[in-house]
Specification:
The complex is a heterodimer. Chain A is mainly beta. Chain A is built from no helices and eleven strands. In chain A, strands 2, 4, 5, 6, 9, 10 and 11 form a seven-stranded mixed sheet that branches. Chain A has a four-stranded antiparallel sheet with strand order 1-3-8-7, with no helix packed on it. Chain A starts with a strand and ends with a strand. In chain B, strands 2, 4, 5, 6, 9, 10 and 11 form a seven-stranded mixed sheet that branches. In chain B, strands 1-3-8-7 form a four-stranded antiparallel sheet, with no helix packed on it. Chain B has no helices and eleven strands. The interface between A and B is medium-sized, with 27 and 25 residues.
Chain lengths: 107, 122
Amino acid sequence: EIEMTQSPATLSVSPGERATLSCRASQSVSSNLAWYQHKPGQAPRLLIYGGSTRATGIPARFSGGGSGTEFTLTISSLQSEDFAVYYCQQYNNWPRTFGQGTKVEIK
Amino acid sequence: EVQLLESGGGLVQPGGSLRLSCAASGFTFSTYAMSWVRQAPGRGLEWVSGLSAGGGTTYYADSVKGRSTISRDISKSTLYLQMNSLRAEDTALYYCAKVGRSSTSYDAFDIWGQGTMVTVSS
């Protein structure tokens, strides 16, 4: 099983600032890596797939990078609606695995 | 509009069984791989089980292997998760999710349902 490790666990950011989230895989997942945003009471929302491709309707302030074992999600200028928990997930191997999540909170 | 609607959750005693359903609409259900993902209270997302696009291959997390069965009814555009020998640690909100591209299992989950809650308690 591929273990996904996200850092930091919590990120305190002021609106308008940049946020960078990290995700590390215990072995290579190529570019088969997705990022999701999850808010309480809502379904998770796909932000990025293929490591760096924005999903339909996702604002350009969200960008993904990396391949192999190291990945990042960057939110260039945080808006109020961006405060949420973010998960990375690999879909290169079975079982599919998620990171433990990074909570982005208002500073 | 593409939609997934889960049902079948509820309160069940330890050792009991439940069958979760996920009604799909707005896409060609028979050509998409599907999965179940859960979130226990206060915890993160955990992938539980997957079904290939062709429906012939199933996958399970170790935590549910041997106790759960994923299946689908194409005529009803519905995905199922039969869960047996339920334990307290199975208590969670269960989501169904579809992958973004047809005919492959190797893709992200682009559409999720709102989830159905399973509580295992005596």
